[in-house]
Amino acid sequence: MSTYLESLNWRYATKKFDAAKKISDVDLNTIKEAVRLSASSYGLQPYKVVIVENPEIREKLKAAAYGQTQITDASQLFIFANDVNVGDETVNNYIKNISETRGVPTEALAGFSDMMKGMIAGLPADAKNTWTTKQTYIALGNLLSVAAELKIDATPMEGFNAAAFNEILGLDKLGLNASVIATVGYRDDADEAQHHIKVRKSQEELFIKL
């Protein structure tokens, strides 16, 4: 655990990436697997994760992210896109996955299926989107943690035009919305932010024990 805490203390929101350094296929797969194994409500994972490496596409996305250089200089750009049409089909696909993975008849999962469908159906459209967006942040947290363990830099970012991202990537046509992004790679030696002492609330200020 001490090593894990050391890794969290090591990480910071990288402002300047070394564009010449690329993540190995092995480490990239580890990051992807950590994101895949993330917790989500009911296990539904109502989102997709788009990994952008294409330089031309990233230049367009950079313009839609107010010119932030991390978008083009990082090794990879991860875009977490929440499902804006979550509903019965999402649940049906999940139930099918459970059935095939665990060898359980779908009929035995009917109660669980109906419960999820009823919960989702009872939510207004904006509440559904808020709910699915929250799930992407859980996955983002896993990405940040595993990257730190691998000594790979990762910066979570909300400063971008989601509508423009959706259009550039065709996400709106897939029923998806870019909710949060992360640039992943290796810090530039000239990035002054890496030398800043991490500032967080103390445990006494942060936690309330009842």
From TrEMBL:
**Which domain of life does this protein belong to?**
Bacteria
Q: GO molecular function terms here?
A: oxidoreductase activity
Nitroreductase domain boundaries: 9-186
The cross-references to SUPFAM superfamilies, in alphabetical order and at most eight, read: FMN-dependent nitroreductase-like
Entries under Gene3D superfamilies matching the protein? NADH Oxidase
What CDD domains does its record include? NfsB-like (cd02149)
Q: Keyword Amino-acid biosynthesis, does the record have it? A: no
Give the keywords, sorted.
NADP, Oxidoreductase
The family assignment reads: Belongs to the nitroreductase family.
Q: What is this protein called?
A: NAD(P)H-dependent oxidoreductase
Q: Which organism is it from?
A: Flavobacterium cupreum
